[in-house]
Amino acid sequence: MKNKSKLILYTDGSCLPTKDGAGGWAYMIRLKDMGKNIAGSGGVENTTNNRMELQAVIEGLFFYLDMIRKKRLKKVPMKVATDSRYVIYGCTTWVCKWKRYGWTTSGGKEVANRDLWEELYELTTMFDINWQWIKAHSGNRYNDTVDRLARIESAAIAGEVLGPGDFGWAVEGHATTGLDE
Description:
The chain is an alpha/beta fold and about 180 residues long. The protein is about 35% helix and about 20% strand.
């Protein structure tokens, strides 16, 4: 059966090539029926880009789950859109094999970022999700927005300030709103 998404979760992660691995994550929940978008972001030190890609999805799903529990949103089929093939393949192909084999790879090594994969796996079992890969920096304004937010967060962790010229592409206005607006 085809997932008829009324909600799209856009996610992205970023990690600067600094010695302390300053990273950022961001998500945007697009509520198509309500015509609203809700964004969230954060950052950490000593991380990797893959960890931030995973964290972005986890944070977005946790936020959505919290809104369901508070009865602010209804649980509906959703689409998760990301430019991370690591996240897409992990969630659609690899995770079931990893879980079956005790969170080890086909080579017998422990799965990298196992803590986040286990957390993400548990969250994804609660939702009807259609996974969609989006090419980075391809003009999708929602993907571009979460990319920008994740990069701002990683720069803030590193003590840097980014300006419009630091992105290499233009963002047409910041399109986020809250549920109460």
